[in-house]
Description:
Blueprint: H1 2-16, H2 29-38, E1 43-45, E2 52-55, E3 57-58, E4 63-80, E5 85-90, E6 97-98, E7 103-107, H3 110-146, H4 151-183, E8 186-188, E9 193-197, E10 205-206, E11 211-228, E12 240-244, E13 252-260, E14 270-277, E15 289-296, E16 303-306, E17 310-313, E18 316-323, E19 326-338, E20 341-345, E21 353-355
Antiparallel strand pairs: 1-2, 2-21, 3-16, 4-11, 4-15, 5-7, 5-10, 6-9, 7-8, 9-11, 11-14, 12-13, 12-15, 13-14, 16-20, 17-18, 18-19, 19-20
Amino acid sequence: MKRIILPILLALLLSACPGDDDRATIETPERAESAVESGEEASVEEPGDENGYAVVRPQGNSTEHRAIGSFEADEEVTVSAEVGGTLLSLLVDVGDTVRSGTLIGRIDPENFRLQLDSARAQLAVAEASLGNARSEYERKQILFDDGAIPQSTLDLFRTQLEMAEAQVRSAEAAVAIAAEALEDTDVVAPLAGVISARPASAGEFVGAGDPLVVISVVNPIVLRFSVPERLAAEIAEGDEVNARLAAYPGRVFSGEVTLVSPTVDRQTRTVPIEAEFDNGDGMLRPGFFAESVVRLSGGQPTFLVPNGALFSTNGGLYLRVLEADRVRDVAVALVEQRGSSSLITGPLQGGERVELQY
C-alpha cells in the first residue's frame, strides 16, 4: 500500500512546482503585444537565454514636441485721452471686463461746451453775412443786366459772395470739431476685452494722447513658444497643441497652431510659434507659463523603447532587432527621453522585439 501512495504524492508535488515557462515576464510576441496595449512594461525575457528583450511600442503617426511657452493677450490696446482736461472719473479698474462702446471715464466737458457754443455763434454770424452777400449780388446782377453797372462791379460783389460762402464752410467745420471734442470727453472702449492696466487716476489732469487704460483681448488667448529649426517643415497651422499649467494641476487645455513664423531666430536657431486657445471661462491669463505639447502633422511615426535597448556606435544610435534566428542592427533617431524610456523614429513597424543591452 505504501508503495502505491508514495508515487502519487511525488507526482502531485512535481505538478505544483512552477516550471521554466512561469519565469518569463512576457514569453511570446502575442503576450508582448497584449502588454503594449495594456500599458505594461515592454520587457521580454526569452526562455533559456541570458539576455533580456523588449517590445517596440508604436506611439502614433505624429511626432510630439514639448516646449515651454507663455500665454499672452491676442491683442492689447492702449486707450488714450483724445482731449486734454481734468479726468473727472475713471469707471473701470484692472480686471474688469468691458465691451466695445463701454464708458470708461469722463474728462471735464465744460470748456469744450463753451467752445462749441462759440463755434455755433460764429457760424450764425457767417450765415447772416452770406445772406447779405447773396442779396447784394442778386441786386447787382439785375443792374448789370439793365446796363446800369459795369462788369467789374458785378465781379466785385461775386467775389464777396464767394468769400461769405467760404466763411460759412469754415464756421461749419469749427462747429464739427468742437462737437467732436465735446463728445471725446466721454472715453469709451474701442473693443471688448479685460482691463489689464490703468495708468491714470480720477482727478488728475491729462493731456491729449495720455494713456488712461490698457485693454487686453484674452478670448481667444495666444500661447507663444518656439521649436527647433529642424522642425520648421514638420509643424503647420492647425496642428494640435496641449498645454499644462502649474495653476491647474492635472488639467489639459487644447488649442491649435495659428502662426508659424516665416523667419528663424538667429541666436537661438528656433522658430517662433503661436497657438490659439479658447478662453471663454477666463481661466487662462496673460503671463501664465505652460508646458506645451504640439503634435506635428508632418512628423514621422514614433516608437517607445526602454533606454537599455539603445546603443551608440560610430556616432549613430541603434537598436538590435530580433528577426527569426538572427539579429539586425537598425539605425534610429532619438526624439526625446521619457524617464526610463526613449521616444524614437526609425524604420520600424511596432511590435518588434529588441535586445536589451543591460
